[in-house]
Amino acid sequence: MTKRIRYHFMGIVQGVGFRPFVFRTALQCGLTGFVQNTIDGVIAEVQGSDSALKEFFLYINNNAPPLSEITGQACSEINTLDESDFKILESRSRGDLDAYSPPDSATCENCLQELFDPNDRRFRYPFINCTNCGPRLTIVNELPYDRDRTAMACFPLCPTCKKEYNTPSDRRFHAEPNACPVCGPRVRLIDASGNECLFDDPVEEAIHTLKQGLIIAIKGLGGFHLAVDAGNDAAVQRLRERKCREEKPLAIMVRNLNTAREIVETGIQEERLLASPQRPIVLLTKKNTGFISEFIAPHMNRLGVMLAYTPLQHLLLENDFTALVMTSANRTDEPICTGNREAVKRLQGIADFFLVHNRDILVRCDDSIAMVASGKPRLMRRARGFVPCPIMLTQHHPSVLALGPHLKSAVCIIKDNQAFLSPHIGDMETPQARDFFHENIKLLKKITDCSPGIVACDLHPGYYSTSVANSMQDVTVVRIQHHHAHIASCMAENGIKGKVIGLAMDGTGFGADGTIWGGEFLIADEVDFIRAGHIRQFKLPGSEAAIREPWRIGAGLLRDSYGDEWQTIATRLPLALHSQDYAVVEKMLTANINSPVCSSLGRLFDGVAAIIGIRAKVNFEGQAAMELEAVADSSDVSALPFKIDDYENTLSLNYIPSIKELTTQRLKGAPPPALAASFHAMLICSFIEMTVRIRSASGLNRVVLSGGCFQNRLLLEGCIEGLMKADFNVYSHHLVPTNDGGISLGQALVAASHFPFQ
Ligand code: ZN
Ligand code: ZN
Ligand code: FE
Known about the structure:
Blueprint: E1 2-12, H1 18-29, E2 32-38, E3 41-49, H2 50-62, E4 69-78, E5 86-88, H3 109-115, H4 159-166, E6 187-191, E7 196-197, H5 202-211, E8 216-219, E9 224-229, H6 233-243, E10 252-254, H7 257-263, H8 268-275, E11 281-285, E12 302-307, H9 311-317, E13 324-328, H10 340-346, E14 353-357, E15 369-373, E16 376-381, E17 391-402, E18 412-421, H11 431-448, E19 454-458, H12 464-471, E20 476-480, H13 482-494, E21 500-510, E22 516-524, E23 529-535, E24 538-539, H14 544-548, H15 550-562, H16 566-572, H17 579-591, E25 597-598, H18 601-612, H19 623-631, E26 643-647, E27 650-654, H20 656-667, H21 672-698, E28 702-706, H22 713-725, E29 729-731, H23 743-753
Parallel strand pairs: 2-5, 8-14, 10-12, 11-15, 17-19, 19-20, 21-28, 23-27, 28-29
Antiparallel strand pairs: 1-3, 1-4, 2-3, 6-7, 6-14, 8-9, 9-13, 10-13, 11-12, 15-16, 17-18, 21-22, 22-23, 24-25, 26-27
Helix pairs in contact: 1-2, 13-23, 15-16, 15-17, 15-18, 15-20, 18-19, 20-21, 21-22
């Protein structure tokens, strides 16, 4: 008996080859009907025998295209029609269509095979792509996503490409960036002064240049990379010198999983993440094999590795290098370069050559960074491959624009039940970064096709984003406390509502009482919060200087622990500095000059790293804490002692007993790895005990973990495990970063929740 079923597929189903997939499946199963993009997904009506319909249903759900994600589907039986074929109906134009572009995707296996097949017409063509792979968001000019509105508009398709584009059974059917050597973009090699070097094969020449240890800026999907041979110490050091980047780890790129396995430890989850179409940089434990220069990630036990994700990168890595350093082409605090001329100008004095092409990058988008912890992938920087996929919310909200924090910034728009985050913007310290911030607000407004009347920003009066919010006309500004936003962001991505216990373990954020917060135990929901507890406050002698020089924080902690004798003890520690330095700190603290108080876990990490003797000064924020985690030898340690103080129902985590114990043991010669591990163990134990105390008083059993310190895998995994053992329901980040890169999602959710639909 013939039946007709109407399917409605929701989720990421547009611009990812979903309609041709449905078309091919329907033909395979011998069904008639049609498929069409609509306002909120894809509609398919299929007609045929029971068994054919069943086969169709199973195939669709088990073999959906790699870039698609069906988040919901509905089906109903409707009246049969008199028809004889299956059609792809035209999409309706914007206005009634949520036609945001899909994210960029790594070159697929089929395209790779063609790339290296001498008989293929796209043999070694650096812009090969198909319906399942290639550039997407980064070539979008206007929406809806359609070739005429992308950077490919200036490359008219040749007859062969056009035929592929128009043939539903072809794997390049409606592949908007489709191109070939006849009709598509080309690469060029240019020298440091911007002159084209004429070679038959610019890619071969670039490889030759890299082998000589020179630095090449290479145009990628969302911006330029600076590349050097990762096995060449001198080249890596030269790159560091020229980029003024002393020790901050550099990412490397390898051709495939096999090479990655030679350099770093990988598990199933890690390999899945590395090889995913999003191809993030994945942080993985180093193997000591000697393939990779020591200068790539000094003092770190982990290495940021990604697999090649464009055809051009595959060509560069094919034969000649184990790995290339591929670091964002920018100067400190500036966004990544995208334009050819822009790159030559901004990278003057850094790059020796430029491997460019004539397909424009229209949306700036850095590489994403991820890690695996507690068996789950976690994003630490959300950009290429993930943007603009929305985070699905549990309910519909009024539209909100959230401007994010100041460092590791990203902006967010909530529209209906979806939250769209911009690519990672970075630290808003330079005019270029601020321009990029405004670029991203425009991008989100374009993607969501809305201009929200509610604007959320941080409580900090001095942030650039706060001043932008205040200068906006005709909007309602809602200011959200930094750590409340952290917790709300984790609630949003986990789809939970109502009161929770929130652990916001962080660098620094402006507190509701005007002091610096950063080690917070909140009772929070999506509207408001109270501060149930925090890490015992301490002073930052010299304020900003204390962040660059953790020894100052260590000195302050010793003073809090030992009173008047602290200087004698400090000079006996291995990191001993000149006693006049300590005298200066003593003076500052006694007179309370430029020494703000904070409850920041990030800064406590810094101070402890200094006391243990790991680092007195840092080259980048978080370096001391990262090294403390890196040295920690987690095997079988006992936690350092601590106390929990109670001041009028606000708990204070008192780590002074830990500082004393650490110092005593260090003076006795205990090695840093054991001390670092027992400090981590103390944090985990004390967090669990604090949370248990808050549960007893509040009856709440859900714990939400957020804040930059949960990038520390030892801490995150220890807390998740310990809290689960204590019967808590534990929620942590996986879709947006736990660091400040996820803040704007929380800001948007809290602001939206202040204005519920009536
Ligand atoms: Zn492909
Ligand atoms: Zn062509
Ligand atoms: Fe933060």
